[in-house]
């Protein structure tokens, strides 16, 4: 099932009216109506309606579009993209290009509440980068307003930060402090030989190769070794009966685009287990950057050394500043670093591993052959992000909303709408070829797609679009 709204005139509403609809739709259960226009509520509603969900009751007070997936009493987690709070110098549009907006969240949660009735619950959030200030990203996205709306009405809807490790850095890149949240419920899942990283395993006894920005490589290596590939997942996600992946339409410098499939990484509670790239260039067995360069290898070795320094070492802060300064210079110069290019053969594997865990893993950490919870995908592309996403994309007023009950299919459509060839984006292409713990079940190229109320075929979306998104610099000319 694939439903698309493409309307470049769509705009996010102000938060003053809690993102309520500006008219009382028949199925609307609250009394609060916005005094200002809210085209997003109407757009999300239309996206669900044209998907044929509960189609015999559309337009009636009994319409329950998500009822086929969400049952009364279910616990639902809405996995948002709250990657980072708004920086002081960042425009509102640039910020909105990288994070899920509260108006889309509010509309979806209203329809979730229709399905769960009085005994279920809704949580929303994710695990953003370690230095994200949670309260600020909730305020910046409008998600705090959404939570307050439901709190005032006594409804069980709450925001949840899934991180177990949070750090604070100054403007120079020096760590000022960190905290470990011991109360976070975490589950370690070992995919072993079923991990897509398994074919990249190092010979026993070799040096660590997997890397994660801003984390100690030795800790990352401890999660990934011969015959063992472990991920630390939030148990809050695995306890859910339904996960709605509410992602952002934007580019990603390590995997090409970051929509639903990459969004599952937000379920990871301890991010040092994430494999983002491998040290060095392909000739050294890595995928950090394309060219052979002794200088680049030495700079990467410096990064490794700095990340392994203990907080008690007095010179640690000075070297953190030096390393951050070098990384900024390399970015300004357009130098490929930290696996930010189309030759990255690691990050897509990690992301699909986590997507399969969210689909097939029970809350004890055991993987099953049968899917363990319903998964839905909704992509917020009202303002999308192009260029150097996910943290610094440029805004695109694309007015795109995508709903699918198959996350990979939703991502394939999103890639086409951005003007990219999904066969050149490994995280999408490989999702369709998985044999064990598959991510695509019922869809085919001949299946119907509905866009703005009109039926299409999936191949129609490969035609040139009105606006072609700019790829990340390491992907220019590739997809």
Describe the structure.
The chain is an alpha/beta fold. It has one domain (about 1-190, about 235-275, about 350-475). The chain is built from 13 helices and 18 strands. Strands 1, 2, 3, 4, 11, 12, 14, 15, 16, 17 and 18 form an eleven-stranded mixed beta sheet that branches. A three-stranded antiparallel beta sheet has the order 7-10-9. A hairpin with a 2-residue loop joins strand 9 (about 225) and strand 10 (about 230-235). Helix 1 (about 40-50) crosses helix 3, helix 3 packs parallel to helix 5 (about 145-150) and helix 9 (about 295-305) runs antiparallel to helix 10. It is globular, with a radius of gyration of 22 Å. The mean pLDDT is about 90.
Principal-axis shape equals globular
Main sheet, how many strands, which sense, barrel? Answer: 11 strands, mixed
The proportion of residues forming helix, as a percent range, comes to 25-40%
User: Which residues form runs of ≥5 with pLDDT under 50?
Assistant: none
Tally of contiguous helical segments: 13
User: Gap between N and C termini, in Å?
Assistant: 25 Å
> Would you tell me the overall average pLDDT?
92
**Class inferred from helices and paired strands:** alpha/beta
* Quantity of strands, as a count: 18
User: What is the domain tally?
Assistant: 1
Beta-strand content bin: 15-25%
Radius of gyration: 22 Å
Name some characteristics of this structure:
globular; alpha/beta; single chain
Give a topology summary.
Layout: E1 2-6, H1 39-49, E2 75-80, H2 92-96, H3 102-116, E3 121-126, H4 134-141, H5 143-152, E4 157-161, E5 165-169, E6 175-180, E7 186-190, E8 210-211, H6 217-223, E9 224-225, E10 228-234, H7 235-238, E11 242-252, E12 256-258, H8 260-263, E13 277-278, H9 294-307, H10 316-332, H11 347-360, E14 374-388, E15 392-396, E16 400-404, H12 407-417, H13 426-429, E17 448-451, E18 454-457
